[in-house]
Design a protein that fits this description.
Shape: globular
Strand order of the largest sheet: 2-5-6-1-7
CATH architecture of the largest domain: 3-Layer(aba) Sandwich
Distance between the termini: 37 Å
Strand content: 5-15%
Order of helices and strands: HEHEHHEEHEHHEHEHHHHHHHEHHEEH
Structural class: alpha/beta
Number of helices: 18
Oligomer: single chain
């Protein structure tokens, strides 16, 4: 089977979603800057990589990741270097770089990196000056910044909310700079919801110029096509009635969830020397995923431990326990648990759990349930107490 679990899916392992690509380009035309909002493990990085690899005439599209950065100047240094690498490819900036070499005592400038001889550079200030040069670029620049929200969270945790607020406003300054409009777009994404993080430090106004691009889970039709791609014409017999059963059992049609169960199906078929996928094999694969706790699901728990501390972590664990045990829980019950743990801003915490894909509201918005029955069962068996 053709599977790509936990890695960036590229080439023939990437499942293309043309409607999603078209939606992205439409939003970009109407909005200079975008935040990609989607649950974890939905394939945001693979989507961005596909946009970068495909390219588009008239655009220079680049991807960078800032996950480990916890300092604003280090962040701006990385962005500055990415912009310099783009401009260095054009001969029209020759004079500019001659001046720059002397100004910063540049030791090396290549596709592999830039080495500055001078220390104590204010990279935010330098980016603002550099934006003026982007007007002369032959191509519109699109910069995907992966795990931007993790960078913000790092700054909040390591340097405090005041530093984080300043960082957000510095980023906004760059976006609203007249030299930025029409020349460059910043696309932010991450495994932490940017909007929820910003709300948590009361700085929503700092991102009100950014439009949200939502990546939905697969539709049933996309899921069926995805299964066909995974089977890879390898002779598996997977009748439509069992494919429907498979999708109904999963309910939450996340690429990661589909792939881990299909991976276990493949293992069972190999063990039993068969290529006929039956309901019993699907059920067994489902159970095996739950048993392989540390392989498939440990990150769901560790993520909560890194996001929430003290009373807030206890609150989150209790509401997820209660939701897993009762299938559906009303918001009023969440409110009572919040009072018990002395949680002041319950809605912000609930929004984080919704964004990250743990829970969702039912159709009438009155009760919450787990997005994934598989995740719910795993939680009950391995976490709830």
């Amino acid at each position: 089977m053709k599977l790509s679990i936990g890695n960036v899916a590229e080439g023939d392992k990437y499942f293309e979603r043309p409607n999603l690509n078209e939606k992205f380009w439409r939003l970009l035309k109407s909005s200079n800057h975008i935040s990609i909002a989607a649950p974890r493990r939905i394939g945001k990085t693979s989507f961005m990589t596909d946009i970068v690899n495909k390219g588009k005439e008239g655009y220079k599209i680049i991807y960078t990741i800032t996950e480990s950065i916890n300092d604003s100047n280090v962040y701006f240094e990385k962005i500055y270097k990415e912009l310099l690498k783009i401009l260095s490819n054009s001969t029209k900036f020759k004079n500019f770089f001659e001046v720059l070499y002397k100004k910063f005592d540049i030791k090396n400038l290549s596709v592999t990196g830039i080495e500055f001889g001078k220390n104590d550079i204010d990279f935010h200030k330098e980016i603002k000056e550099l934006l003026g040069k982007t007007k002369d670029s032959d191509e519109y620049i699109i910069m995907f910044i992966d795990e931007f929200s993790q960078t913000l969270e790092n700054i909040i945790q390591d340097q405090g909310t005041n530093k984080a607020k300043l960082f957000l406003h510095q980023c906004r300054e760059l976006r609203i700079d007249p030299n930025c409009k029409g020349n460059i777009s910043f696309i932010y994404t991450g495994s932490v919801g940017l909007e929820n993080l910003v709300i948590s430090i009361n700085e929503s106004k700092s991102i009100n110029d950014i439009k949200c691009f939502e990546m939905p889970t697969f539709t049933k039709e996309e899921s069926l096509d995805f299964i066909e791609m995974i089977l890879n014409n390898e002779g598996y017999v997977f009748e439509i009635e069992y494919r429907d059963y498979f999708l109904e059992k999963l309910q939450w049609l996340l690429p990661y969830i589909i792939q881990i169960v299909m991976s276990e199906i493949e293992e069972i078929c190999i063990e039993n020397t068969t290529k006929i996928i039956t309901q019993n094999i699907i059920d067994e694969a489902y159970e095996r995923c739950i048993e392989k706790n540390k392989i498939y699901f440990s990150h769901w728990e560790s993520r909560l431990k890194s996001m929430f501390k003290g009373a807030e972590h206890s609150f989150v664990k209790e509401i997820l326990n209660k939701t897993a045990q009762n299938n559906e829980v009303g918001k009023y019950e969440y409110f009572n648990i919040a009072i018990k743990h002395q949680i002041e801003y319950m809605d912000t915490t609930i929004n984080v759990l919704e964004y990250d894909g743990y829970i969702t509201k039912n159709k009438d918005n009155q009760k919450y349930r787990f997005n994934s029955p598989l995740l719910q069962t795993w939680w009950l068996q391995n976490v709830a107490n």
